[in-house]
Amino acid sequence: MISSLAIFALSLLALVDARPSSSTAYFDGLRTSLIDNGLSGLWNAIAVANSTDSGPDLLSKLYYNDKFTIYAPNNAAWQASELSQPPANDDLVSLLSYHIVQATLNSSTDIAPIRHHTIAFTELRSPTVDFPGDQTQVIVLETAVNATTGQDVNDGSVLVRGDNWNATSAGDQFTYENLYIQPIDKPSPLLKTLSQSGLAISANLGATSAISAISSANLNDTLYQQCHGCTFFIPVNNAFENATQTGNYTGLDDGSKRNVILNHVLNGSVVYSPELTGGSAFVTAAGMPLIFLTDEQGKKFVSVGQYRATILRSDIPVSNGVVHLIDTLMVVSQNNHQRADDAASSAASAADSRTTTTNVIGIGGTAAPATSTTSTATTSAATGSQTGSSAFSTRRIDIEGVVKVSVISMILGGMWL
C-alpha cells in the first residue's frame, strides 16, 4: 500500500512535471500570456527587473515555487505613472514584489465583501519593511462597489486599498501555469507609502494631531525606530479636539500623556481587521488591556479602560506595522511596565514562528478563473510554498532569450511621490 507521504510526493512530482521544462520556456509563455491580455508594460518591467541584483531572486520564485496571484498594472497604468520605461534598480523590484501575493486568490470568490478586507501577504519583505520574523508587507483587498448603489458589484471586480488611494481591477482575471493574474488600473504608490516611516502616513488621513502628540511625548524613536511590527490605533483629529475641550488629555503631565499614547499601540503584534474578533483581548505598549468589540450591526470598536472607540478605517499598511483609525482618544494614563514587557516578549516569540506560512487572512471559495493558456489553474489556498531550491536563489533567470529590452538607467527621484 502506498503511504500518504508517497502519494503526496507523487502529486508534487506531477505538478512539477506539468510545468515547462525550463525557465526560458516558462517565461516565454508568461510573456505571450501577458501581452495577449494587454499587459506588455508589466512584461517590460519584469524583463528590466531581471537585469538588477535582486530581481532574479524574485522572478525565480514564480517558476520554482507554487501558487501566486499577480495584481498586474495594465499598460495605461504604467504610462500614467511615467513608468513605461522603468529604471533597473531595487525600487522596481520592490514595486513588483508588492504586486505578487503568495497564494492564489480568485477575484470572484475569495475577496471579502464591502466593509471587510482580505489581507494577503506579498513578496515584499525586509529591508524595505520592518516586520518581525519573516512576515512580509500585505496588500489589502475588498470587493468593488457600485458607485451608484453602494453595493457589491458581484462581477469579480476588486479594489486594492491604500492609504489615500485605491486601485481597481481592469478586466477579467486569468491564469498562466501556477499564476492567477488580475489586471488593475494603477501601480500602487508603494514607495510613497513605505518611505514614510511608521505612523507618518496617518498625517495624510486626518490624524495630524496624533502625529504631533507622539512627537511632543518624545515617542518618535519608540514608535518609528524601535517598533518592529506594531498595531497602531490612531485617533483622528476630531478625537483630539474633543479631548482638548474636556481637558481630559491636556491637563495630564508628560508621563501620563506618554502612557495614553502607548495605550493605543500593540507592541510587536501586527493585527489586521479579520483577526480582530469580538471579545479578543490584547495588551498595549503601556501594559493595559485592550479589548476588541463588535455590535449586532457588525460595527467594530476597541476599548481601553472606560473608553470605547469606533474603528473608522482599518488596515492601512505602514513600513513597520498597520494603522487603524479610531474616533476617540482613550485617555487611560495608567501603565504596567512588567505586563507590557511580557506581552512584547511573547509577541516577538510568536512572530518568529509566524513566517509566511499563513499567506491570506479572510478568504473563502475555490472556483477557478478562466484559463487563457494551456495552464493548470490552482485552487485558492491560505498557504503558499516557500520551498524553492536555494541553488536557484541567486541565479539570473534566462528570459533574455525571450525578449531583448534596453536597460534604462535613471533615478526615481520624485516620480513615486
From TrEMBL:
Instruction: Please give the residue ranges the record annotates as the region Disordered.
Output: 361-389
FAS1 domain: which residues?
194-330
Q: Provide GO CC annotations from the record.
A: extracellular space
Superkingdom, according to UniProt? Eukaryota
Cleavable signal peptide? 1-18
**SMART domains membership:** FAS1
Q: Which UniProt keywords apply?
A: Signal
PANTHER family for this protein: FI19380P1, PERIOSTIN-RELATED
Name of the featured protein: FAS1 domain-containing protein
